[in-house]
Amino acid sequence: MRLFATLPGELISLFRGLGEAADSVNAKVYLIGAYPRSILVKEDCSDLELVVTGSCEKTVKNFIDNYPLARNRTINKKDRFTIVPSPYNDGDFIRISSSREDEKGGVGDIYSETLSRGFSLDALAISLSKNDFGAIIDPTGAVDDIQIKILRILHRDVFEKSPIFLIKALYYVSRYGLSWDPMTEGLWKEAMNKNLYTNLNLKEINEEISLIKKEKNGKAVLKLLESYKIIGYRR
């Protein structure tokens, strides 16, 4: 499967530039999350999320210093991400982070990062390094789940640890017309019956809503969230 086969040249150039920036500091960089998924479902996506194994700071600096089209060199931090402006579209950004630790607290790699995700459809990764450019990393079976259109969590305690996934689950099901994996649906209903969404603060909810509003079926998703009383309970 060649996920990059249909991409425009400017994106391939950008991805190669990011890969070269990592290679030159003995790191590796991977495209992960929304963009690999968008290629499979054949939709436009401006959400570029990258994960680095090795020095994220050195990789970002090397990219900013050496990529010829990086006109805006402003770097910001948000949560665990370094935010770099897209060299092509004003207002679009590249989110870059270091891979998360493995289950034993050891140095993270691309596998520990994919396995740390909440849903399988967020866990698909693609290498941007020169030696394996375009290679798919899919230890969670994300490709199969995306193709058969099913929502599957990767850990039983996802909703308890991160109640924001209660919103994301409805969002994904509505946006992509997904079916529920039986265990995922059962755990989601259990978490809803416990009112775990009340553990979310208003900022978390509003950030998620702002992203949903940008989608073409955003109003329908918001209406669904309101029907479950996930939004509006603190307004």
Structure write-up:
This protein has 235 residues and is α+β, with helices and mostly antiparallel strands. It is 42% helix and 14% strand. The chain contains ten helices and nine strands. The strands form two sheets. Strands 3-4-5-2-1-6-7 form a seven-stranded mixed beta sheet. Strands 8-9 form a two-stranded parallel ribbon. α7 packs parallel to α9 and α7 packs across α10. The longest helix has 15 residues. The termini are far apart.
What is the radius of gyration computed over CA atoms, rounded to a whole number of angstroms? 18 Å
Tell me the structural class.
alpha+beta
Main pleated sheet: 7 strands, mixed
Please give the number of β-strands. Answer: 9
Uncertain segments: none
Helix proportion: 40-55%
Report the average pLDDT across residues: 87
Keywords:
42% helix, two-stranded parallel ribbon, 7-stranded mixed β-sheet, 9 strands, 235 residues, 10 helices, alpha+beta
What's the arrangement of secondary structure elements?
Blueprint: H1 9-23, E1 28-32, H2 34-41, E2 48-53, H3 56-66, E3 76-78, E4 81-85, E5 93-98, H4 110-115, E6 125-127, E7 136-137, H5 142-148, E8 150-151, H6 158-161, H7 164-176, E9 179-180, H8 182-193, H9 202-213, H10 218-227
Parallel strand pairs: 2-5, 8-9
Antiparallel strand pairs: 1-2, 1-6, 3-4, 4-5, 6-7
Helix pairs in contact: 1-3, 7-9, 7-10
Quick summary:
The protein has 235 residues and is of the alpha+beta class. The chain is built from ten helices and nine strands.
